[in-house]
Amino acid sequence: MASTSSAYDFSLFEAKAERSSLAAAPAPKAAPKKKKSNVIQLSEQQLRRSHRHGAHSLRTMLNLGFVLVLVGAIGAIVFSQVQLTELTDQINTTTQALSEQKSLSVQLEMLAASQMNTDEVETYARERLGMEKVSEGQVSYISLAQDDAGTVVQADTRPNFFEDIWASILSIFS
């Protein structure tokens, strides 16, 4: 089954028997190559060195510990910076709110001062509330004797609410 295609040689894919009949001259056979051995020869010292896993595992554990400490330190630094940024933002927001409240307080004090002078208060009291200024006949003074004093006849002996709570806590632990 030979192909007439000049671009591809399909005869390489045909069975061996067919190819041998198609080929006019047999190809010369090459001498068989000697295979290289895969066995590696190690000296006694190299053999002992290859069995020392303890030194490598100790170094690996130390490296791993160092990396973990380094990552932990970097994580702690990043975490503290994030907290610092959040607290700074909170402080700035609170400071701004405080300054706004102070400004509002000043405005309200000025408004109250402008509306509450004494002449306006007297006018409001006289016209709206029907009040008058105090005359000398309306004032009377009372003097008390110095020996007058009040005494408690009977003290309150029942404990208050907090003393009851404290006593119940002490009774639980005793």
UniProtKB/TrEMBL annotation:
> Is Transmembrane helix one of the keywords?
yes
Q: Does the keyword Membrane apply?
A: yes
Question: Membrane-crossing residues?
Answer: 58-79
User: What organism, scientifically named, is this protein from?
Assistant: Anaeromassilibacillus senegalensis
**Origin superkingdom:** Bacteria
UniProtKB keywords:
Membrane, Transmembrane, Transmembrane helix
Q: What is this protein called?
A: Cell division protein FtsL
